[in-house]
Design goal:
The protein is α/β, with parallel strands linked by helices. The protein contains 8 helices and 10 strands.
Length: 232
């Protein structure tokens, strides 16, 4: 079970203010989507929450850990153990099989190959991909790649899952399937899910939606999730 708490967050990139004093939380099993125009800083927000970038001000707390209090190497270790990342294009390693890609986080955590691959195969089976376990990424469809990326992000049952445009290369049918799997699986594990998207279909699957623009992060109400509201 995980919880994300962001307090008074300010972000700057190349002297440009992206956020000023933003605060929000994501509870265990909850999905929060962040929408906004391209270039507004949504990916920078995720990088900050992941401990990759450092905020100009404010705090990011995952469960009982305040990321700013950790050294860079400690943040990297914490990220490996407690955060799952889903990238826009999957970012699977081409030289590894699907099974090896999904098992990789556990292998980096010094789990045995057998344990890591057994758990990876179980996760792939839940996502309907066990029959593709020995295939390399070049042989997979976009939807299969993204499902595998979800399996990899969740293999270690992280406290927080961060997804950056996870359906950006998919058609509408695949988008609905992939985002449904991501939200459902994170909810089952009790992971706090924060995703950024430009797609109203993805935003509609979230429990709450935040709009990022003009250095602010504002809530979009449940009754106002039309494409016009979600998109810039």
């Amino acid at each position: 079970m995980g919880r994300l708490a962001v307090e008074g967050l300010s972000l700057e990139v190349s002297a440009r203010r992206l956020l000023s004093g933003a605060s929000f939380g994501v509870d265990a099993g909850e999905c929060v989507a962040v929408v906004g125009p391209s270039g507004v800083g949504k990916t920078s927000l995720l990088n900050c929450v992941a401990g990759i970038d450092t905020p100009a001000a404010g705090s990011v707390r995952i469960d009982d850990t305040e990321l700013s209090l950790l050294r860079a190497d400690e943040r990297a270790g914490f990220r490996l153990r407690h955060i799952g990342l889903v990238f826009q294009f999957g970012e699977l390693l081409p030289e590894l099989t699907l099974l090896e890609n999904v098992a990789l986080p556990l292998r980096l955590m010094d789990r045995s190959r057998r344990e890591a691959e057994d758990r990876a195969l179980s996760r792939l089976d839940r996502l309907g991909l066990s029959h593709r376990a020995q295939a390399r990424p070049e042989l997979l469809s976009g939807g299969e790649i993204q499902r595998a990326a979800i399996a990899r992000a969740l293999i270690h049952e992280p406290s927080v899952v961060l997804a950056d445009e996870p359906t950006g290369m998919l058609d509408e049918d695949s988008t609905a399937q992939v985002v449904g799997l991501l939200v459902e699986t994170a909810r089952q594990l009790g992971s706090a899910l924060l995703l950024v998207t430009h797609d109203p279909l993805v935003a509609a699957a979230a429990d709450r939606v935040l709009r990022m623009r003009n250095a602010r992060l504002d809530a979009i109400g449940d009754s106002d999730r039309s494409a016009e509201a979600v998109l810039p």
